[in-house]
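Holo model, guanosine-5'-monophosphate. Inputs:
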Amino acid sequence: MSTIFSQIVEGEIPARIVYEDETTVAFLDANPLAPGHTLVIPKDEYERLNDVPDDIATDLYATVHRMVPVVEDAVDADATTVAFNNGEEAGQEVPHVHCHIVPRFEGDGGGPIHAVAGDRPSLADDELDDIADDIESRV
Ligand code: 5GP
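Output:
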């Protein structure tokens, strides 16, 4: 069973496609958070960013990079929030990697990325050092 976004890629369900190339496609979100809310996806189905091969990740970011200023210009936005919900616990509902480009306007009542997480942890310096070391050792 393919994802709803794969069905858009295949032309099986309609979408307002605004850009397409060999490996990626951008289309308007059907339930927009703001005028111009655009989704950018890899055409192939990967559930999470962690699953995307390097070459497709490069293509995906290139399309995001291309679309952000275009979307801002199109709706005369002051700014954009650009984000992935990467995994169900982070709010991802469609299991097909997608980048949200959400136009933002002065006084729109929205919040920053900092508002998406729960309570902030209180971490001591040695805990932060351990986390940084652990991440660095895995790269
Ligand atoms: P998520 O919560 O997975 O990060 O976001 C999924 C997004 O896909 C939502 O913003 C939702 O409005 C959008 N969406 C869900 N189904 C469709 C669809 O069939 N067509 C389009 N264009 N957008 C969809």
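The two ends are 34 Å apart (CA to CA). The chain has one domain: 4-138.
Archived with the compound record.
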